[in-house]
Specification:
single chain; about 400 residues; alpha+beta; globular
């Protein structure tokens, strides 16, 4: 007799990836023995990531008792990653079904609790998988990364800058890139560079590189970024204007950023969006080279880690102020600009190439994910707000290591 555990969103190889958002799963009896129902307890059995269980869409507990009908009728439950216990490798969180009151294992299901982590804290293996996937995606300048380079150029500045759509557009941009990297290596999640803290592990030859006096970024032998090329030009131009063993300084701290827009219960997005200038803009300005200018910033892979932190700050502000619903007026702010309003589809995924949009739309529609149906092929601004699906429905299938799911 066995217990089959099914978690939705498995990829073609049956691998399942979870975040902090609870998802509905099922357990059922296979090859039954006897004529009575089976009392089963779900528990963690992995060596890395951990999960929690519940019978309703809540954060749950480390174990869950279920009574499974002998006729094989599935019994639903909810499962989510345990906050603070993400995976470090593929399938290192294991759901185990034991016959209650015994050590008899009736079924097991490996899962991966995949979340975005502070780049400073990555294990060497996590770091190396990320740079390997990113290097493959760049493909020495011949890979599909060129589409992402072409999304962040001067003709497209108005699509995701200078208005309230700055944060939703970049959230979509990052998620698109992350899904492409996960198609190369499913264990990868986009790490963030927390720019208000020292991050000496980030600015090493093994990770984001060390700049020489001319601003040319140097890597270890065999590093995937040694063949980095954009716009036909090899290499990365970046010269920090601060000691990379320390924080950049001179920009808002996380605490100060989260205070933008006021405090709960009166906090509002209209004030928080000022973070586009400080700390976001000032973080870019702590370098010379590619990162300093909008039209070249995306040529540097560090750009995406910088923006992951920008998005994390928004995510944390949403959580702290309970402003995750696009129907809540204080969760967003009005705009008269196309692409910056909640019902608007976003360029380039909508394929729009007539004024006021740019004349090209690189990259095609938004990539689908087996983990979720959101945000669809042509994502709208409003679809990027409740990324963890606090209000129900499918999530965007990403999360941050320090921002929990909370109803």
């Amino acid at each position: 007799m066995n217990v089959e555990i099914r978690v939705p969103g498995a990829d073609a190889l049956g691998r399942v990836f979870l975040t902090w958002t609870p998802v509905e799963a099922t357990a059922r009896v296979l090859n039954p023995v006897g004529t009575t129902s089976i009392r089963t307890t779900l528990r963690n059995a992995g060596s890395g990531g951990r999960v929690r269980f519940a019978t309703t869409r809540t954060l749950g507990t480390p174990t869950l008792a279920l009574t499974l009908p002998i006729d094989g009728t599935p019994v639903r439950f909810f499962v989510a990653g345990e906050f603070g216990r993400p995976s470090v490798s593929l399938g290192d969180a294991v759901i185990e079904a034991r016959r209650t009151g015994t050590t008899t294992v009736l079924g097991r299901k490996p899962v991966t609790v995949r979340v975005r982590k502070n780049a400073q804290t990555l294990t060497p293996a996590e770091r190396d998988r990320f740079v390997a996937a990113f290097g493959t995606f760049n493909g020495g300048g011949a890979g599909r990364f060129s589409d992402f380079r072409d999304m962040h150029v001067l003709p497209a500045v108005g699509e995701g800058h200078g208005d309230v759509g700055f944060l939703p557009w970049h959230r979509a941009y990052l998620l698109d890139l992350e899904r492409e990297l996960q198609a190369i290596d499913p264990t990868v999640a986009l790490p963030y560079w927390r720019f208000d803290q020292a991050a000496p592990n980030v600015f090493t030859r093994e990770f984001m590189g060390v700049s020489n006096a001319a601003g040319s970024v140097q890597f270890t032998a065999g590093h995937p970024f040694n063949t980095w090329r954009t716009d036909g030009t090899p290499g990365i131009s970046r010269l920090p204007r601060f000691a990379t063993g320390s924080s950049p300084g001179g920009l808002l701290t996380e605490t100060q950023t989260l205070a933008l827009g006021g405090s709960a219960p009166n906090a509002g997005y209209g004030g928080f969006i000022g973070m586009e200038i400080d700390p976001h803009g000032l973080a870019h300005g702590r370098f010379t080279g590619f990162l300093r200018r909008v039209e070249t910033a995306a040529r540097d892979p560090l750009f995406f880690m910088l923006h992951a932190n920008v998005d994390r700050l928004w995510a944390k502000w949403q959580w702290l102020n309970d402003l995750t619903s696009p129907d809540e007026p204080r969760a967003f702010a009005p705009s008269n600009r196309a692409g910056h309003r909640i019902p608007d589809t976003m360029w380039p995924w909508n394929g729009a190439t007539s004024a006021p949009r740019p004349s090209t739309a690189p990259g095609g529609t938004f990539p689908p994910s087996r983990s979720t149906t959101r945000p669809g092929l042509k994502p709208k601004v409003g679809a990027m707000i409740d990324y963890q699906a606090v209000g129900g429905g499918p999530p965007l299938a990403f999360a941050y290591d320090d921002v929990p799911f909370e109803l």
